[in-house]
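User: Can you fold this complex?
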Amino acid sequence: MIARPFAELASVGTAVPPGVLTNHDLMRTLDTSDEWIVERTGIRERRIATPDQSVAMLSREASAVALERAGLTPADLDAIVLATASPDRLLPSTACDLQALLGAHNAAAFDLGAACPGYLFALTVAEGLIASGQSRTVLVVGAEKLSTITDFADRSTAILFGDGAGASVVRPSSQPGRGLLSTYIGSDGRLAPLLYRPGGGSSDPISEKVVCERSHYMKMAGREVFKAAVRAMAEACDEALTRAGVTADQIDLLVPHQANLRIIDATAKHAGIPMSKVMVNLDRYGNTSSASIPLALDQAVAEGRVGPGSLVLLVAFGAGFTWGSAVVRW
Ligand code: COA
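Assistant: Here's the predicted assembly.
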C-alpha cells in the first residue's frame, strides 16, 4: 500500500447567483419570522438562481475560477466528478453538460448522488482515481439549484435551502505531506424517508398526481434529521482525525457543512474545536447541500484563514443518510 497523501486540492473556486432571498422576503408568504429562523438555524439569507441560471452554468463559473487558480485549462482535465442533488436533467448527467460548456474534451464526466456530503464523496472518488493511476487531473464539483426542489409553501424546509456551486482541481500530491491526509464516507439508507423527494423519479414518475401532492419537492422530518446530523458529524470528525493520525488541537480550521448553526456548534464542541476555528457562512447562503463546503472553504481561503500548510478538517451530513469527512493539509 502506498502512503498518503496521494492527492491534493490545487484550488477552490465558487459561484453563486446574484439573487438574494432574505428571511424578511420569506415572511411575506410564510407564517414565520426572521427571529425564529435566525435563532433556530442561524440563516439570514440565501441565493436563488433564475430559470436561465442552470446547475451546469453555475458549475462552469466556479470551475473556471478553480482552473485559473490552479494554472490549468479545461483540456488538462481527465475526469469531472460532479456531486448534485438537483441535476439540470435526469439524463444525461450535469457533468456532461459541464464538460461541453467548459470544452474539457479529454475528461470522463459523471454525476455523483450523495446529497450534502457530495463534495466530500467526490473528493474521495477523485483521490481513488488518482491513486489508481486512472486520472491525473480531476475536477471535483458540488453544485445545486435547491430552489427548484424546495416547497416554498412549507415553512419547515423553505427557510433552509439555497443555490450555488463550488469546484476544486484535485491532482497528485506535489509535496510530501501536502494534500488529503484522510477521507471517510458512510451511509444508512434505512433512514431515507426522513429527508427525501418521494415523487418525480422512476418509482413515481412526474404526473398530475405528483404535482398536486407536491411530492416532487423535498420532505423532511426536521427534528429527527437534526439529531442524526449531530451524531453523524461527531463520529465523522473523530474518524477523519484518527485516519489522518492527527488530533483536534492540531486543526487550524474546521469547515463543516452549513446546514444549521446549532448542528455546527454541537459538532465543534464534540471535536473540542473552539468556534474561533470554525468557518461559518450559512447566514449568507443557507444550506447549499453539496456546494456548502467549497463555498465555506473558498471564503476561508479568501479571508486568509486557510493558507499553505494549514490543517483543515471538512465534515458533512445529508439525505440518504450520508456523511463524510476529510483532513487536508493545504
Ligand atoms: N417558522 C416558525 N415556526 C416554525 C417554522 C418556521 N419556519 N418551522 C417550524 N416551525 C414550528 C413548528 O410548526 C413547531 O410548532 P409547534 O410546536 O406548534 O408544533 C415548532 O416550530 C417547533 O418545530 P420543530 O420542527 O420541532 O423545530 P426545530 O427546533 O426542530 O427546528 C428545524 C426546525 C428544521 C430548523 C430543525 O429541525 C433543523 O434544522 N433540522 C435539521 C434540518 C437540516 O439541517 N436538514 C438538512 C440536513 S443536510
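The first strand starts at residue 7 and ends at 15. Residues 222-244 form the longest helix (23 residues).
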